[in-house]
Amino acid sequence: MPAIAPSVLAADFANLQRDIAMLNSSEAEYIHVDIMDGMFVPNISFGIPVCEAIHRHATKPLDVHLMIEQPDRYLPAFRKAGASILTVHYEACPHLHRTVQHIKELGALAGIALNPHTPVELLSEILSDVSLILIMSVNPGFGGQKFIENSYHKIAKLDQLRKEKGYTFKIEVDGGVNLDNAALLAQSGADILVAGSFVFSAGDPSGTISKLKNVSQV
Predict the structure, then answer these.
(1) Is there a binding annotation on residue 7?
(2) Any catalytic annotation for residue 204?
(3) Active site residue: 19, 34, 37, 191, which one?
(4) In this predicted structure, what is the pLDDT of residue 145?
(5) Exposure letters 200-214 (e unless 16+ CB within 10 A, then b)
(6) Is 34 one of the catalytic residues?
(7) Is 174 labelled a binding residue?
(8) How many angstroms separate the CA atoms of 161 and 144, rounded?
(9) Is 176 flagged in the annotation as binding?
């Protein structure tokens, strides 16, 4: 049964403490925090102070997804702000091994995110060093986008690589996750499902998290 990581990008920012309390009492395992800089992606979300505020109220690990250029500059600050997982984009890191080692030295779990056009094979030399691979199943930058069907193939290929080599990293998928695709995502090899607008736009967000977990049982 995959873990659920609701994305607070879709939360009500005017009632963020209330929404974090809801996630604390829900069946979600992580709280997904999307950081956008308006340069790597065409949108700006929030930064270090909001991450700190979320961490003060959260009782679950913060899964911080850095959709930013030159993420190395901000790794210590986001770790200090409460990140348990720090995920950087392959496309934003020319010295990816160095970045991954820096995250691990800070005491966080290291993750790598791949945009929809980026082949999983490009990670073959670093898969043994990371705790998580995040497959973007939409183009990063905005919530509420339609799921890209080729994502199933990428997840399955990554899962096959993991099994062949005996790696232990988790596979996370982010973008367009809902009750229609959660089961197939789990069957393809996904361990963690990120859901934002699907959870927070529901009449019963906590119940929706429970339904995602139940429908994705394999």
Answers:
(1) yes
(2) no
(3) 34
(4) 77
(5) beeeebbebbebbbe
(6) yes
(7) yes
(8) 30
(9) yes
Identify the burial level of 118 via C-beta atoms within 10 angstroms of its C-beta, where 0-12 means exposed, 13-18 middle and 19 or more buried.
middle
Out of 37, 63, 159, 174, the active site residue is 174
Rounded Cα gap, residues 144 and 199, in angstroms: 11
For the chain, list residues with pLDDT below 50.
218
For residues 111, 36, 77, 123, the Cα torsion angle rounded to the nearest 10 degrees is 20
94-103 contact pairs (CB < 8 A, 24+)? 96/126, 97/125, 97/126, 97/129, 98/72, 99/71, 99/72, 99/75, 100/126, 100/129, 100/130, 101/129, 102/72, 102/75, 103/75, 103/79
Spatial contact of 95 and 125, defined as CB atoms under 8 Å apart? no
Give the separation between CA 1 and CA 25, rounded to whole angstroms.
19
65 assigned to a ligand binding site: yes
> Domain ranges in the chain?
3-215
Q: In angstroms, rounded to a whole number, what is the distance separating the alpha carbons of residues 105 and 108?
A: 8
Render pLDDT for 9-53 as a digit per residue (tens, 0 to 9).
999 999 999 999 999 999 999 999 999 999 999 999 999 999 999
CATH number, domain 3-215, options 3.20.20.70, 3.30.750.24, 1.10.287.130, 1.10.630.10: 3.20.20.70
